[in-house]
Write a structure and sequence with these properties.
- By secondary structure, the chain is an alpha/beta fold.
- The chain contains eight helices and seven strands, in the order E-H-E-H-E-H-E-H-E-H-E-H-H-E-H.
- Strand 2, helix 2 and strand 3 form a beta-alpha-beta unit.
- The chain starts with 5 loop residues before the first strand and ends with a helix.
C-alpha cells in the first residue's frame, strides 16, 4: 500500500509521441502522488514508452474508450484505498504546476470534484476552434439551465475527484465507456456532489491526433445530448419514486 493519498490516472490511446514527456514532467514535479497509466489498447508504442518510466501501467486488450480507461483507474484506486485521484490527459496539454491547487482543494474538503478551467480570469489564454468553442458555450448554458450551476469549462479533462465520487462510478454501468463529459457533470450536480473550478494553464496538442478531430465533435455533441436526456429522465423518475 502506497503512502501517497493521491493517484494520478492517465488514460492513453496511441500517444507514443506525447506520453513520455507527460510522465517525465509529472515525475520532475515530485508530487505526493502515484501515477497510473491506462493504455487503452493502443496500436503504437504507448505501452512500451510508458513502461520505461517509474509509473504503474495497466493495459486494455483493445480500445474500450476514454471513459472505460478512467473507470479502470477508478477501480484500481478503490481497490487500493486512495482517497483522491487526479485525471490527467496523456496528450501534453495539462500542466503539472496546476495540480497542487487541485490537491489542496480536495484535501481541505471544499469540493468532491475540482476541475481545472481554461476560462477563469487567472487562467492562461487558450484558443479553441470555432466548433469546439461553440460546443463549450452551448454546454455551459445547458448545464446552467438544467442545474442552476455555472461551470466555465465543462469539457476540461483535468479533474481531481474524491473517493465518494470515483467509488460510485467504479461500479459497472454507472459510467459511460466513451466520453464522460457534460452528461456526467449534470448527473453529479443533481446528485449533490460539490464541484469547484480552479484556474489551469493548458497548451495545444503538439503531436498526434485529438479524439475530437475532424467531424468527431459533431457526433460527440449528439452522443452527449442523448446521454443528458437519459440522465434527466432517470433523475425525474428517481424523484417520483422517492
Amino acid at each position: 500500500m502506497s503512502n501517497n493519498r493521491f493517484l494520478i490516472v492517465i488514460p492513453a490511446y496511441n500517444e507514443e509521441e506525447n506520453i513520455g514527456t507527460v510522465l517525465q514532467h509529472l515525475l520532475d514535479a515530485a508530487l505526493p502522488a502515484d501515477i497510473l497509466v491506462i493504455n487503452d489498447g493502443s496500436k503504437d508504442q504507448t505501452e512500451a514508452v510508458a513502461k520505461a518510466y517509474a509509473v504503474k501501467v495497466m493495459s486494455h486488450p483493445c480500445n474500450l474508450g476514454y471513459g472505460a480507461a478512467l473507470q479502470t483507474g477508478y477501480k484500481y484506486a478503490t481497490k487500493n484505498g486512495y482517497p483522491y485521484i487526479i485525471q490527467f490527459d496523456s496528450d501534453g496539454q495539462h500542466d503539472p504546476a496546476d495540480l497542487p491547487a487541485i490537491m489542496r482543494e480536495l484535501q481541505e474538503g471544499k469540493a468532491d470534484i475540482v476541475m481545472g478551467s481554461r476560462f477563469l480570469d487567472e487562467s492562461s489564454s487558450f484558443a479553441t476552434g470555432i466548433v469546439k468553442g461553440a460546443g463549450i458555450r452551448f454546454f455551459r448554458l445547458l448545464i446552467h439551465r438544467l442545474t442552476g450551476k455555472r461551470i466555465s469549462d465543462p469539457t476540461s479533462g483535468l479533474r481531481g475527484v474524491s473517493s465518494s465520487v470515483f467509488q460510485y462510478y467504479s461500479i459497472r454501468d454507472r459510467f459511460p465507456a466513451d466520453f464522460p463529459d457534460a452528461d456526467i457533470l449534470i448527473q453529479q450536480i443533481l446528485m449533490k456532489f460539490e464541484i469547484k473550478e480552479v484556474p489551469a494553464r493548458m497548451k495545444q496538442r503538439e503531436a498526434g491526433m485529438s479524439m475530437h478531430a475532424g467531424l468527431r465533435p459533431v457526433f460527440y455533441m449528439m452522443q452527449i445530448l442523448l446521454s443528458i436526456l437519459i440522465v434527466m429522465l432517470r433523475h425525474k423518475m428517481t424523484k417520483k419514486v422517492a
